[in-house]
């Protein structure tokens, strides 16, 4: 251990002594943003002169805010957080690494987590059953039936690996469990004969890991393969990032929710451009943001492209820790440590930032976002106009229909005429704002009989209304707001429309506890928002089947129907195969749209229906006031709910306890399993990597446009029977009812290869006018599935490339989007720009990310996808080049252009040279 700056000191908190590494030992540290101070402490504590050096500490100390990126450092998180969709393949990979280690003559016990690793099973429950009292139990039973093999693997891992714990199913969503229970804010760990105290930091295998930033904890999402390396004790290579400061002023107006705020911030920061940046909130307005709202803002940082979006520690942090039942000794440690280290928020002090923007909280208006991107914010007053316009022409931009010229309109945020001050005032009718001129609504109704009555399903009808996702269900303000709105609606005599599939899936059991305490559960149940499970459900695509009669009606005329959910993702094909439009909204608005049953309504001026007294009922009549909500929080939430709710969090129910768990250090693979298979990543691996080679004669597997998400590349939702993955499962004796989802099958590479680029809304320009996982095979020019084309190319030893536009790989931190790409035979991805996590994942799997020069694209270079591609400049080099030459050959001859190699750090270069990060780590452990 080195201590070049003499920072190692002792901190006394009451009767306890802790070793800390003082930031004020480094001259100039006080100017740094909060997040960089956390990085600086991390380097001081881990300085060893080899991986972490004095020069890295100086690089953070001397951080240049004007630089695009700073120097490379080696960051060591305190812990790793996993969810089961990404956690299962992590465990599969670690098990396979043990096998590979043994095969190469090494010690398999070296493949073992060296830092605390916490996995929460939250992504597997599907809302199959809804709107009935036993929905939770039935969905939980279905979940265990489908996922037993996966859960047996996780229970085995819990006993086979050190420092690895699993939160069983039906407990909560990983980010909410992290916020309410797992997070320490200040971490403690015995090192030698002393107890160290240091900032709680983490990386997580879910892109919404930054939710914990609201608590002052630095954490962000990484791919599963990066997380595995961190679990094995490998520091994470990163460049010191730019830091954008968001100065908050004012306060939210009456009737404006945290959801409205985060959708506003998502749009604003996408416009500003923060991909690869840290974001920090500061200023007088921070005090007006409750902790739950801060967590909501942190949660959706991937939606605006930031690595993290953090709030500093302050009195609100301490209040939340007490509120959620953390021990007083821990709260005291957080306070004393933060103040001693200069990590306590001072609203009068402004750190040095790369850039700063200001947001007046009073300018935020009620909003939704969609129909396919979270950053496409639509003021609620314009929702009907926008949806009608999209139904007339789905290719139009929602922002254009809102009234902006494009996504970079400088008038942000829109000063929308909206009478939010009238929310909650039900004493007399109010004059609400004039609506915008709507386009004619493209109506094409289909008759349907539901519950013995004939009704109609039409374009724009809401067929899913889901209160779901950690983003909002962790926030008592919006959740109690939804419950109170439901209560008022029922008392007025309103009911949800019969064609709407309604569901409630909170992120922890505490939510249902306070709903019960507040007496709101019966009203939610009356509107069909019965508890369906504790997990991600609809937000991850586990929305389950639509009402059968509704599904058939949609198919009759291929209707464009909608889902409304309180989630964070609404990408194409993610929520449900039959909902072409998906809108993000606050939980109270989800209830409102369930009552309306259609997007063809102006919620600010049209009635939701007729009450039991024969009078029209408006949203303003049932919208709860802030005072009502806060009073319910005061009377219905207690710290004991959290301490009791998490008292036996790792125990699980009888289903979990009854799982058959093998013993031993090596996992017994089952060749008949359709869930867990030994992956091929280490097949034929030698102790030393082969030299790099140029790519020659590659064909284009897919030619894609802008904003291709990891959901497009590797969907998480339902598996269709007529898909390559469905065919594989049927051939292996799996009934359609047990297909489960792509997310649940990530432990089986055979399913996942077949599911790569299988999103039903994928548009591959090689097959214009066709949606789904199809391509053209060359030179035969046949239209086939992407998987079949891959098999043909692999059999002919033809390498493949993907060509794409801007923001390639945005969305979830889905390592299978990179794993599947590799296993299809893709050697390189050439895009106009990459999202951070997916670019890193591609490198981690040995796939080369190449970027067009600024101003160039497939279109500008006249690339149509039937050419062959060669990439030169990789062979016989000690260091990877910054640029390579791409040679394109077609019937007209050859031409060349230059592409940028998006391998940004020396560590990433090492991963690529070794064929991937797992191979690199395995060879390092073998060498040790």
From TrEMBL:
The keyword Iron applies. Pfam families: Aconitase (PF00330), Aconitase_C (PF00694). GO terms for biological process: propionate metabolic process, methylcitrate cycle; tricarboxylic acid cycle. Residues 69-597 form the Aconitase/3-isopropylmalate dehydratase large subunit alpha/beta/alpha domain. GO terms for molecular function: aconitate hydratase activity; iron-sulfur cluster binding; metal ion binding. Pathway: Carbohydrate metabolism; tricarboxylic acid cycle; isocitrate from oxaloacetate: step 2/2. Its EC number is 4.2.1.3. Residues 727-853 form the Aconitase A/isopropylmalate dehydratase small subunit swivel domain. InterPro entries: AcnA_IRP_Swivel, Acnase/IPM_dHydase_lsu_aba_1/3, Acoase/IPM_deHydtase_lsu_aba, Aconitase/3IPM_dehydase_swvl, Aconitase/IRP2, Aconitase_4Fe-4S_BS, Aconitase_4Fe-4S_dom, AconitaseA/IPMdHydase_ssu_swvl. It catalyses: citrate = D-threo-isocitrate. It is an enzyme of class 4 (lyase). Its cofactor is [4Fe-4S] cluster. The keyword Iron applies. Transmembrane segments: none annotated. Keywords: Iron, Iron-sulfur, Lyase, Metal-binding, Tricarboxylic acid cycle. Belongs to the aconitase/IPM isomerase family. This is Aconitate hydratase A. It comes from Tessaracoccus antarcticus. The lineage of its organism: Bacteria, Bacillati, Actinomycetota, Actinomycetes, Propionibacteriales.
